Amino acid sequence: MTRLPGEILAILDLGCGTGNQDLKVERDYHVVGVDISLSSLIEAGRIYDEVYKASVTQLPLPQDIFHCVCSFDLIGHIPVKQKTTLIREIYRVLRPGGLSFNYIEVEPSKGYTSWAKQYPDLYKKHFVEKDGHFGLESYQTVLERFRNQGFSLLEYKVLAKMILRPGVYARRFNNEYKSKLFVINAIASLDAMLSKSAVTAGIVAIAMKPLEILFEPIVPDDYGGLLLTVHRKPVS
């Protein structure tokens, strides 16, 4: 991503929520946020240069104006039928040569998620509806969607393959799932106990970090629940 000397770097944060202070680390960044929540935009407006209340699939913005478009935990919430429209909008507002950074919730095809899907009603209740993840897809499908809209893939990384932050297993399985398998019952109960206080959860997270560093690189991507991507809009 290149810009002329002295040129302001224009960044668009899709589904910005209350804003991300890290996007305003440089004074010559002009950051724009888009979200459907007015209360969140009020907070984001204290950080960003501009905010807009709008759907991310119908951006009230001109084409070819941003050096970078980013999203964090957004695309997994977008219904499948609207995803192509969203990616087209990202492409439209990016300048030629601009970058799209996305941190995307995806659906693993293996691991505990594949086991959980044996019980469709419970999966819908505790994996989809609880967090509003109505548009979860495999990481391969997400990459293909960007490719089909003309993006060039620069880099991607699948995360959260095995070691999850404290509280995740309890959130997913400390419910009706516990009666389905003894191991799940034990893991969910232990995780619920360890994540009950912020202090304990923090200690557990630090203790688990070496295991994450050791195992995440060797676990197949099909086990991952998060996808980090960097795409570029071609110059011509």
Tell me what the CATH architecture of the domain at 9-109 and 133-161 and 221-232 is: 3-Layer(aba) Sandwich
Major sheet size, sense and barrel closure: 7 strands, mixed
Shape: globular
Reading the helices and strands in chain order gives: EEHEEHEHHHEHHHE
C-alpha end-to-end distance: 14 Å
**The CATH top-level class label of the domain at 9-109 and 133-161 and 221-232:** Alpha Beta
Structural class: alpha/beta
Tally of separate helices: 8
Unreliable stretches covering 5 or more consecutive residues: 1-5
Query: If you compute it from the alpha carbons, what radius of gyration comes out, rounded to the nearest whole angstrom?
Result: 19 Å
- DSSP strand count: 7
Fold blueprint:
Blueprint lengths: L8 E6 L14 E7 L2 H7 L5 E4 L12 E7 L7 H14 E12 L6 H5 L3 H10 L9 H10 L3 E8 L8 H6 L8 H13 L3 H18 L10 E7 L4
Parallel strand pairs: 1-2, 1-4, 2-3, 4-5
Antiparallel strand pairs: 5-7, 6-7
Protein described:
The protein has helices at residues 38-44, 80-93, 112-116, 120-129, 139-148, 168-173, 182-194, 198-215, and strands at 9-14, 29-35, 50-53, 66-72, 94-105, 152-159, 226-232. The protein is an alpha/beta fold and 236 residues long. It has a domain at 9-109 and 133-161 and 221-232: Vaccinia Virus protein VP39 (Rossmann fold, 3-Layer(aba) Sandwich), CATH 3.40.50.150. The chain has a seven-stranded mixed beta sheet with strand order 3-2-1-4-5-7-6, with helices on both faces. The chain is globular, with a radius of gyration of 19 Å.
